[in-house]
């Protein structure tokens, strides 16, 4: 995450918009602060795999970014993903993918973050489709 020094929702969206891949997907950050972040991606046909479900790579992308933004909300703007794992629990179908990440532990230089990935239908019904956990590190020395 390469964000301006001020950490708020607007600067987080600017940081997200500076990523060409995030712009390609049309990703929005809808919540940011207090060690948490929520990203949303509209689900469209171009993001599906061969069986008609949202591609796992899109889920992983959303988890990675939500984890890093949540870590940045706790550690400051100069952070990088140290690593993450993801478990897919059901095929992703719906209108919108929501990645909700929250820091579960933060030290001075790293944070452990959990991320729930849900799909939302047009009527607002949510379904958990994956769970991820990662480590976010400060980018400085």
UniProtKB/TrEMBL annotation:
User: By its UniProt entry, which CDD domains does this protein fall under?
Assistant: PaaI_thioesterase
The Thioesterase domain is annotated at 51-118
User: Could you tell me which species this protein originates from?
Assistant: Streptomyces avermitilis
Which molecular-function annotations from GO does this UniProt entry contain?
Answer: fatty acyl-CoA hydrolase activity
Please give the family membership noted in the entry: Belongs to the YigI thioesterase family.
Entry protein name: Medium/long-chain acyl-CoA thioesterase YigI
Q: Does the keyword Hydrolase apply?
A: yes
Checking Gene3D superfamilies in the record gives: Hotdog Thioesterase
Cite the InterPro entries for this sequence: HotDog_dom_sf, PAAI_dom, Thioestr_dom
Query: Which keywords label this protein?
Result: Hydrolase
First-tier enzyme category under EC: hydrolase
**Reaction(s) catalyzed by this protein?**
a fatty acyl-CoA + H2O = a fatty acid + CoA + H(+); a medium-chain fatty acyl-CoA + H2O = a medium-chain fatty acid + CoA + H(+); a long-chain fatty acyl-CoA + H2O = a long-chain fatty acid + CoA + H(+)
What does the record give as EC number? 3.1.2.20
